[in-house]
Design a protein that fits this description.
single chain, alpha/beta, Aspartate Aminotransferase, domain 2, 2 domains, seven-stranded mixed β-sheet, 15 helices, binds 4'-deoxy-4'-aminopyridoxal-5'-phosphate
């Protein structure tokens, strides 16, 4: 028995490749837009997180280019030592104002925010409470913290209360996705805020999919509910609406000061490169300036949702421009994605453990810049393939 024996036994991905049903690590040959080039063909992109369509925006690209000219290509060190530029600080001020908190702190990825914040804030004999479908970075950050990790059933407030009750005398932090990344439903923040006050728990919202999508001008889930002041920490990422890579956490100045000196993912990893910092900063400006994007995203949401519902697809609990089509078994999701590529549509399969077994889904996500023609064409293909695979009535 050797350590590498498990590698020979790892067959699932190879079996899928041999069956021509493998839908991962697909290579895109163009910019991330509402259509992308894949295997030499232009196809409709319904599988990105580019909600506002800003990844190829001229002002965002110009800002990145100007930053490279001024600051070069990298910081060669962490924020803690030589890697803090004036533009990191300016971006942090812009982010704090955007989400309505005193201070913000920028990390190199959103994953590292959750890892760094959770592991520095909670420790032994304390408890981190997570929704069962919270993002992997939350689960990993919680595990790293040495705190007890308790899970409650997805968006189930009675179950959350049971957990809170059983942890009555412990220091607690509830962390929840603002918009759930796979199912597209929204956290029940008003109830969570009430329960957190009742049981004396800190609240952190992961707004990776809320920024740009929910709230006034895309200010996120806490703004959407008018609950910014009742939430202790808000994190977000730049890899979705904000068109780049990196992440942030925002909260009271003292809390951010603590995280800044404790989060190992911040202190021992190189800072965001200048081009990314500048593009995020420009993307925020464009988001606030070009309000039509937010409106167009929601208009597209209504159109696609109606087409899916009319055709008999089960769109689950989604309330946002992340719209799943629940197909059941993993194999149905693989087949559907593979057939849709032939039809000129890029979508993603989501299988367990990202969702409950038997609840595999096709994750469809919209952009502000999709045209009605593109959405209708993609939906015609969804319906054609759905009928072919007997997932919806003919
Ligand atoms: N939280 C959620 C809810 C996410 O969906 C993601 C990215 N998929 C992350 C955190 C991590 O963000 P990043 O891509 O910046 O590492």
């Amino acid at each position: 028995m050797g350590l590498l024996d498990k590698i020979n036994k790892f067959r699932i991905a190879k079996d899928m490749m041999e069956a021509d049903l493998y839908n991962y690590f697909r290579v895109i040959e163009s910019a991330q837009e509402n259509t992308v080039r894949y295997k030499g063909k232009e196809i409709i992109m319904l599988g990105s997180n580019n909600y506002l369509g800003l990844t190829n925006h001229p002002l965002v690209k110009e800002a990145a280019q100007a930053a490279i000219t001024k600051y070069g290509t990298g910081c060669t060190g962490s924020r803690f030592l030589n890697g803090t530029l004036d533009i990191h600080i300016e971006l942090e001020e812009k982010l704090a104002a955007l989400v309505g908190k005193e201070k913000a702190l920028v990390f190199s990825t959103g994953f590292m925010v959750n890892q760094g914040v959770l592991s520095s804030l909670a420790g032994r004999k304390e408890t981190i409470i997570v929704d069962r479908t919270d993002h992997a970075s939350i689960i990993d950050g919680a595990r790293l913290s040495f705190a007890d990790v308790r899970k409650y059933r997805h968006n189930d407030m009675e179950n959350l209360e049971l957990v809170l009750k059983s942890e009555k005398d412990t220091n607690k932090l509830i962390i929840v996705d603002g918009v759930f990344s796979m199912e597209g439903d929204i956290a029940k923040l008003p109830e969570i805020v009430k329960l957190a006050a009742q049981y004396d728990s800190v609240i952190m919202v992961d707004d990776a999919h809320g920024v740009g999508v929910l709230g006034d001008q895309g200010r996120g889930t806490c703004n959407h509910f008018g609950l910014t002041d009742q939430v202790d920490l808000i994190m977000g990422t730049f890899s979705k609406s904000l068109a780049s890579v990196g992440g942030f956490v925002a909260g009271d100045a003292d809390v951010i000061h603590f995280i800044q000196h404790m989060a190992r993912a911040l202190m021992f990893s190189a800072s965001m490169p200048p081009a990314s910092v500048a593009s995020v900063s420009a993307a925020i400006d464009v988001m606030l300036e070009e309000e039509w994007r937010h409106k167009a995203l929601w208009h597209n949401n209504d159109l696609m949702r109606e087409r899916l519902d009319d055709a008999g697809f089960n769109t689950g609990p989604s309330e946002t421009p992340i719209i799943p089509a629940v197909v059941g078994e993993d194999m149905a999701a693989f087949k559907m994605c593979r057939r849709l590529i032939d039809e000129g549509v890029f979508v993603n399969p989501v299988i367990s453990p990202a969702v409950e077994p038997g609840n595999a889904l096709i994750r469809l996500s919209l952009m502000a810049t999709h045209t009605e023609d593109e959405i209708n064409q993609a939906m015609d293909s969804m319906i054609k393939v759905g009928k072919e695979l007997e997932l919806i009535p003919s």
